[in-house]
Each structure stands twice: as C-alpha cells, then as structure tokens.
Amino acid sequence: MRPLIILAALVATILADSTINPPECGRRPYGNKVVGGSQANQRDWGWQVGMNFNFYGFICGGSVLNSEWIVTAAHCVDGYLNPSYYTFDIGHHDRNNIESWAVSRKVTKVIAHPSYSDRTLQNDIALMKLDKPLTFTDEIVPVCIPDGSADFSGKSSWATGWGTLSSGGSVSRYLMQVEMPFLTDSRCKQKYSSVNTKVAVCAGETGEGKDTCQGDSGGPLVVENNGKWELAGITSWGYGCGDGGVYTRTSYYYNWIQQQIQNN
C-alpha cells in the first residue's frame, strides 16, 4: 500500500488545454491503493465522472480527457444522442452528497463511434463535449490516453465506478475501486470467443470475484506507466459480475479521439 501523499501547500489550479494528454494528465495527488473491491478514497481518481440521464438519474461512468471533453462507452448513449439529455458530476466521491470541490456540467455534443455495434459492442466508445471548460485541481484531473504502441502485458489495472456491487444489485453511493490483472490476448479470446483484441482488452480472471458491474459502464480501466495513469480501457461488457470483463482498448482509438476533438 502506498502512503497518502500530503501536500504541504495549495497547488495553483491550472486551466487545461484542448488536446488529449495535457501536461496535467494522469496525476493522483491523493493516490492510495486498497486491494480488491473497496471504497476509493475521497479526492482520488480525479478523472472519474458520473453521467446522469436527465429523466432517470445516474446511468454510467466516464473519464475526463481534457478541459472540454469526456470519454465514455457508446452503449451508454446508444439511441439517445441529444446532448440535452445528459449532465456530468465531476470530481465527487459520494453520489448522495456531492462534495464542495466537485463540479457539474451540461453537455453540448455527443459523438458515438460511427462503427459502434449494439450487437457485438465493438467500437464501444463515445465522446461528450462539456458546456463549460473545466479548471484542473488536485481533485479534478484528466487521464492520459496511451498510443497504439501501448503494451499492458504483466501489468495490473484499476477500475473505478459507482456500479452495483453484485449482479442486479443497487448502485453504490460511494466511488469504488478494484485491482485486476490484464489478460493476455489468447486468454481473452479463450474466455470471450467473440472479442477482437485489436480493439478490446480483457481484465479480471474467472473465480477471483473482482470485476466491474452494471452502472460501471463507460468508466475507466487505468494502468500506471512511468508515474502517470493511462486509460487502458473503457468499461464495456462481461458475463455477469465477478469474473472479469471486456474493455474498449483506448490506444486503438487514439487518432480517432484526437480527430474528433480537433474537428468539434
């Protein structure tokens, strides 16, 4: 377990730029790892966001890309691309009592990947533009996006979200975290024969009881790389809860993400 980092002085807030991987990306000033299906610390995982559907409430997770954009799963917005349907809570820990450092934003644009398939859940990625830019703080931080050369072999991943703690259960009030191993491509295909490992990555092994679940969709699967945290995957799908799952491989979509941000 890593000790909590205590800051000796206030850090000035930095206005983010409009590219992916701004200098501030991937920081965890309040990082503290707790193994396996545990409640996260307040102020940790600063890129995690909660997506709210205005006629229902909380539905999915997502990650801060930069000051203006959120990345999530396409199946979270499938059939409902009107941006007025959505709001985001950003930087919070407790869904029922949003902390003072957290912010909320409306959405002005929703871009689902044009090749997303609701049958196979391939290309399960979407971008959402915020109505007002974010100011980065120690509690609100963008995540880094790995490029196509990223190799997660032998590494551990961390997934976070407010999803249910068991299949069919109620969503969590507090942000949860779980550590899971990345699976090799061959093991991933063995577990899920339909998976294209070029565009997806698997994490979590059968029988370990560690997984994401309903409500975690769209949220981050991250890995530490040279002191920065990168978005290795976006929570997409699995069979039940507790035996690992399938995540959109964000490195494959690096250029698509960059193009959409630049053009919109």
Automatic annotation (TrEMBL):
Record domain Peptidase S1: where: 34-262
GO-annotated biological processes: proteolysis
CDD domains, alphabetized: Tryp_SPc (cd00190)
Pfam families per record: Trypsin (PF00089)
Record keywords, A-Z: Disulfide bond, Hydrolase, Protease, Serine protease, Signal
InterPro entries for the chain: Peptidase_S1_PA, Peptidase_S1_PA_chymotrypsin, Peptidase_S1A, Trypsin_dom, TRYPSIN_HIS, TRYPSIN_SER
Residues annotated as signal peptide: 1-16
GO molecular function annotations of the record: serine-type endopeptidase activity
Protein name: Serine protease 27-like
The organism of origin for this protein: Brachionus plicatilis
